[in-house]
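I'd like us to work through together how a protein chain folds, taking it slowly. To get us started, please write out a protein record for me. Go ahead whenever you are ready, and we will take it from there:
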Amino acid sequence: DYMVPYEAVRRRMLETSIISVEIGKVLNADTSPAINSIVSAYLKDLNTALEETSKKKTIPGLRDLIVKAEAGGTVSEFVISKIKEDFSVVGVDTSEQIINLSVEDE
């Protein structure tokens, strides 16, 4: 899914002449109550982002790619750290630690 604010799509369609200026005016949620109600209804859906951007950067499967890169040893630790920082990736622990647990009777 690619999510873009409603107004950005409307403006881009005007800029590229996909819609006419008249249609652009009709689709303006700020001045058209009917369009505004439709946009408001879609905003209630958790899978849309019509009003504001999430400002999240992501790549599908990024965590798995980081794990593979660290395991393969072909990507420097600095580059992996930079990717984690740039994409706000937290909680990726790829260290393989063996923990021995035992229960002993006293």
